[in-house]
Amino acid sequence: MPRETQRARAARAVEVFDRLGRAMPEAHIELDHRSPYELLVAVILAAQCTDKRVNLVTPALFARFPDAPALASARKPELERLIRSCGFFRAKARALKGMASALVADHGGQVPISRAALAALPGVGNKTAGVVAVHVGGDPAFPVDTHVRRLSRRLGFSRSLDPDRIEEDLQALVPPERWASGHQLLVWHGRRTCFARKPACERCVVADLCPRVGVANRG
């Protein structure tokens, strides 16, 4: 079988996102939030944790610490108690306090919209910065979480295991105005159909466009 050209791969990617968009027009970030501050906190908590669990934790957390100055001054034992069920609560408490302190010291307590400024905050990695940036009207990005990473490889959009390289590969396939929606569609498809262990290929709307790289039992 001939190797797929970049042009053909880009055309296939556009069709994949078109179909996923028609199948899931309601796709959106599933972390409950009312402000950029709440979104940033929720995305930090969502590392190695489900959005559902984070959404159970954040109402009490935001009631107690409604903004960056309040979170920066939080006592660590109280903060750890409030986020304990999200897992890795000690590390996440340090990240939250460090992030909030930097917001107060360097940004007047407000969440910046540029990805570089977000990524420079303590406890905020490149993926988290990308997710927040695309939802607060900041820099265009195609953040790579575990679902995007898995689907990008299965769909043959990237051969890399490195999230930054995968993002570059995805960005080369579709125009910037489709990066944010593309990210969200891959997340939703990964959670609802293209599961890690046993993808439901029989009901996948892009099955005929997918080489299913790394999926066992192709027959």
Description:
The two termini are 18 Å apart. The chain is built from 11 helices and no strands. Helix content is 55%, strand content 0%. The protein has helices at residues 6-23, 36-45, 51-64, 68-72, 76-83, 89-107, 115-119, 126-135, 146-154, 163-171, 179-192. By secondary structure, the chain is mainly alpha-helical.
Please render the helix and strand layout as text.
Layout: H1 6-23, H2 36-45, H3 51-64, H4 68-72, H5 76-83, H6 89-107, H7 115-119, H8 126-135, H9 146-154, H10 163-171, H11 179-192
Helix pairs in contact: 2-8, 5-6, 9-11
- How helix-rich are the residues, as a percent range? 55-70%
What share of the residues does DSSP label as strand, in percent? under 5%
Distance between the termini: 18 Å
Q: Outline, from the CA principal axes? A: elongated
* Overall radius of gyration: 19 Å
Largest sheet: none
How many helices? 11
Given the helix and strand composition, which structural class is it? mainly alpha
Tell me the CATH topology of the largest domain: Endonuclease III, domain 1
Q: Please state the average pLDDT score.
A: 95
Q: What is the assigned CATH homologous superfamily of the largest domain? A: Hypothetical protein, domain 2
Give the tally of β-strands: 0
